[in-house]
Design goal:
- The chain is α/β, with parallel strands linked by helices.
- The protein folds into two domains: 58 residues, no CATH class; 194 residues, Vaccinia Virus protein VP39 (Rossmann fold), CATH 3.40.50.150.
- The chain contains nine helices and 13 strands.
- Strand 4, helix 4 and strand 5 form a beta-alpha-beta unit.
């Protein structure tokens, strides 16, 4: 362990450590982001927006660059956020599209959904942002799901600290029809292996609206880590079969497959 790590570990969690994190990130990210804390909430500032969250959003620039690498979200667009997790990226999408746009998010994990809704409220409870308590799938049914209240909640494997529950599933096509959406511009998915199922349930949406995709695809097909096949291959194949240009880019340990309509 380096000296800096030893010193950092010796500092107890609390106000001092929190202040040091804010100072450090303001220095490292100067010119692109600024961070502060007010009334118990964290404020992340950028040229385009100011985000309020229950926890620090020090990596919001990385998240934007990672998922919007091929398509930058614009005011008035309709965005699907499949796998909202803690709602930080969902809230950013809401700020980016503005009141003339719309964000429809999915989060089946009730513990994660509570965090998502907390961040939604901190950013003014925008009426153009909706959180659906269901998992995206290829049909409407109920499935077993490992709820962890963290990253990695999944229908395909048991995560540490998780417990099995039953969750409702829906399809992107069904939600688009039910809400009468007249456009879908961008679909972000980070749904821990369910991306193949979700794409099968989005054929009508893809054919009608030709949205751009950014899909986390470093998961194992059917959760089978022994076979070792990552979902990026089938996801690329599915997108190409629907007339998309598809490319997977690695960001450290994370892989994102981008789909851009070519026809």
């Amino acid at each position: 362990m380096t000296l800096i790590r030893r010193v950092w570990s010796a500092i107890p969690d609390g106000a001092t450590k929190d202040w040091l994190r804010l100072v450090g990130n303001n220095y490292v990210q100067r010119g692109s982001a600024r961070f502060s804390r007010r009334n118990g909430s964290y404020i992340s500032g950028a040229a385009e927006f100011t985000l309020v969250t229950t926890e620090p959003a020090f990596e919001f620039r990385r998240l934007i660059d990672q998922f919007e690498h091929r398509h930058r979200i614009k005011p008035g667009e309709v965005v699907i956020d499949a796998g909202a997790f803690n709602g930080i990226l969902m809230s950013i999408f809401g700020l980016q599209v503005g009141p003339t746009g719309r964000v429809v998010a999915f989060e089946p994990d009730a513990l994660n959904r509570e965090k998502t809704l907390s961040n939604w409220k901190l950013n003014g409870s925008p009426t153009h942002v909706e959180v659906i308590p269901a998992a995206l799938w290829d049909c409407e049914t109920e499935i077993e799901f490992c709820e962890r209240g963290a990253l990695g909640s999944s229908a395909f494997w048991d995560g540490p600290g998780g417990h099995k529950i039953t969750v409702r599933t829906t399809t992107l096509d069904q939600v688009v029809r039910a809400r009468g959406l007249q456009r879908v511009d961008f679909v972000k998915m980070n749904i821990e292996g369910a991306e193949i199922k979700a794409l099968h349930g989005a054929d009508e949406t893809i054919s009608r609206f030709r949205p751009c995709f950014a899909i986390s695809s470093d998961h194992f097909v059917d959760g089978d880590s022994l076979r070792g096949e990552r979902t990026c291959g089938p996801v690329e194949e599915m997108l190409r079969g629907r007339g998309y240009m598809a490319e997977t880019i690695r960001f450290g340990t994370e892989w994102v497959t981008y789909g851009t309509p070519s026809t």
